[in-house]
Design brief:
Layout: H1 3-30, H2 39-46, H3 66-70, E1 89-91, E2 96-101, H4 104-110, H5 119-123, E3 135-141, E4 148-150, E5 155-163, H6 172-175, H7 182-185, E6 188-194, E7 200-206, E8 214-216, E9 223-224, E10 229-233, E11 238-244, E12 249-251, H8 253-260, E13 265-267, E14 272-276, H9 277-283
Antiparallel strand pairs: 1-14, 2-3, 2-13, 3-11, 4-10, 5-6, 5-9, 6-7, 7-11, 8-10, 12-14
Pathway: Lipid metabolism; Phospholipid metabolism; phosphatidylethanolamine biosynthesis
Pfam family, one: PS_Dcarbxylase
Protein name: phosphatidylserine decarboxylase
Length: 284
Amino acid sequence: MTLQGTVVTDQVHQGAKDLLKNLSEKQGRRMNTADSVKDIPQFIKFFQDQLKMDDVKYPLEHFKTFNEFFIRELKPDARPVAFPERDDVAVCAADCRLMAFESVEDSTRFWIKGRKFSIEGLLGTEATTSFINGSLVIFRLAPQDYHRFHFPVTGRVESSVHIPGCLYTVNPIAVNSNYCNVFTENKRVVSIISTEEFGKVAFVAIGATMVGSITLSKEEGDFVKKGDEFGYFSFGGSTVICVFEKDAIKIDDDLIKNSARSLETLVTVGMTLGVARNKMESAC
């Protein structure tokens, strides 16, 4: 391809990205209008086998827009946290389809097949050498899921950095596409959580198709317990990625085995994710 051809192709790709972003944000804004409330019954009917309305904190008449329903809270006992007294046990951060890898190298071998993926690209200025080949957990949320995300570990929010970007879909086809690198090009918020048991944990909230915003309910400096709410995604699909420092966590075997077979595991907030390796070693 000539240099001129490459420039034209890049311009077309950028034009497609801009169009998708504008359409996504426009649809996201519409879901905040009073008129959008009429979409709620149809949405519930479409996903009736996957939505547990008994878990929802408020009755349907409480919601005045579709987005209010989409970011619905659950009843306090709807998502019990595994081993709440043990800070060395990490838990799942979202209701989602989960992929977990002991190293970034494993993630690119089994799952992320598109353009070259890197921790530096994902975390931006928050990337440090200890994260480079750390353990990677991908929590992929579908539209029908509960769209609030929670802390997987106990610690302190050290920093949160907003990174602008595209709004590509986060489905597996897009993740494996050569057209884009979903996780490093999409709009996202990168937070670093400092913990006693796991060292530092990078928590990345990634926007996707139709996501108008990523809202955090905790700020820099806040001390948090695992299972506490961290924030929510407005209307659309979205993803959370957690990166643990190298050799910091022993992820549950079933999650690793499924992921090695390119199988996503359905999980809910508060289920066990893994155990701190330093606690395992001290117990030996």
